Amino acid sequence: MKKYNFYAGPSILSEFTIKKTAAAVENFADTGLSILEISHRSKEFVAVSDEARAMIKELLDVPSGYEVVFLGGGASLQFCMVPYNLLAKKAAYLDTGTWASNAIKEAKLFGEVDVVASSKEANYTYIPKEYTIPEKVDYFHFTSNNTIYGTEMRYDPDVKQRMVCDMSSDIFSRPVDVSKYDIIYAGAQKNLAPAGVTLIIVREDALGHVERAIPTMLDYRTHIKKESMFNTPPVLSIYAALQTLKWYKEQGGMKAIEKINLDKAAVLYDEIDRNKLFKGTVAVEDRSIMNVCFIMNDEYKELEAGFASFAAAAGMVGIKGHRSVGGFRASLYNAMPKSSVEALVACMKEFEKQH
Ligand SMILES: Cc1ncc(COP(=O)(O)O)c(C=O)c1O
User: Fold this and answer.
1) Can you point out the beta strands (E) in 175-269?
2) Ligand 1: which of 169, 184, 192 to mutate, most ligand atoms within 8 Å of CB?
3) What is the 351 CA–ligand 1 centroid distance (Å)?
4) Residue 99 annotated among the catalytic residues of the structure
5) Measuring CA to CA, which residue among 1, 74, 16 is closest to residue 245?
6) Domain with residues 4-11+252-354, CATH architecture
7) Which residue in 190, 246, 264, 320 is the catalytic one?
């Protein structure tokens, strides 16, 4: 039976990525070796890594003065690597969810942290808008898409200070003005590749302003200098990432992809707003186009388990909401076809008819 993959991450990848990666597991670049066993220093793999970094620069229109780095350790390692490299005295953080607050916790190990605003008191159901970033901070950090709560800042804020963003769950979902940022980081396992690689885009002149000694492996400059080959990189994930990037280019790049994403998300939000059984969980203006969270309307609460089983029987996978929100969460990453969103909507309509 066809499965519709709504997992929040690791999550759906394009058929193109999966097929190309599967072929490379058998025979990578006509080497007669599998991508699983090839040396990261082989000329064939170095070419993959170089091409992937170049394609990221092309797709996101990365200006000169920036480097693209592939690292292990997940986005969570960036929660400490960012302050290690950038926080001399004080940094400003926007608290919009669990991942943002995890980043705040790590930053506090390195200096003073000014949490400029938080929506924690409302279980992170909106993005705070009224806040002031102190003039003299080393950087301002925010999370563009809150995977757990389904809120998103789908714009690049204008701030005078250096800006750092965790784009783990919405990178490549829209065009980004990279020139406004000093560091962008993202775990690969949503819109790029299987888990294992983290993508970092870093403005080189943002580095070198802290006095502390930085362990070699945690110093961005190490990886920039060695072109992400300082130590063994996650070879398979980088190979898969390159396939996804090629697929994005084929689709027409970030503008075209954003259009598709907006259209897909609207199909589901329209149904949530129309269907008497369901309601959204976050402020309408802050709704994420990547992670759509919804719950049963109060008078239909007892139907939650029933809808979960009904949807599962129709092939929907991964729509259970995160435990801190409850209800349902459908993740609509780039690789999710509109037809799958329509299948979920059909399921919601049918369940409504039955009740
Ligand atoms: C926005 C965001 N930041 C950070 C993380 C943590 O990523 P990782 O598991 O790669 O450390 C996640 C994981 O889902 C996430 O969604």
Assistant:
1) 183-187, 198-203
2) 169
3) 33
4) yes
5) 16
6) Alpha-Beta Complex (3.90)
7) 190
- With 0-12 / 13-18 / 19 or more C-beta atoms within 10 angstroms meaning exposed / middle / buried, residue 252 is exposed
Distances, alpha carbon 52 to alpha carbons 37, 80, 173, 221, 332, in Å:
19, 25, 17, 19, 24
* Helix, strand, coil abundance in the chain, percent, nearest 5: 40, 15, 40
Kindly name the residue from 95, 99, 156, 320 that is annotated as catalytic: 99
Q: Would you say the CB of residue 168 lies under 6 angstroms from ligand 1?
A: yes
Domain ranges across the chain: 4-11+252-354, 15-250
pLDDT score recorded for residue 265: 98
Query: Which ranges of the chain have pLDDT less than 50?
Result: none
Q: Give tens-digit pLDDT for 202-226.
A: 999 999 999 999 999 999 999 999 9
CATH classification (class only), 15-250: alpha beta
166 is an active site residue:
yes
Residue 270: active-site member? no
Ligand 1, pocket-test mutation among 76, 81, 143, 170, most atoms within 8 A of CB: 76
pLDDT in tens, 128-138: 999 999 999 99
pLDDT of residue 1: 81
Whole-model pTM above 0.90?
Answer: yes
- 65's CB contacts (< 8 A; 6+ apart) are 203, 204, 205
| Dihedral angle sign, alpha carbons of residues 132, 184, 14, 314 | negative
Residue nearest to atom 5 of ligand 1 (CA): 75
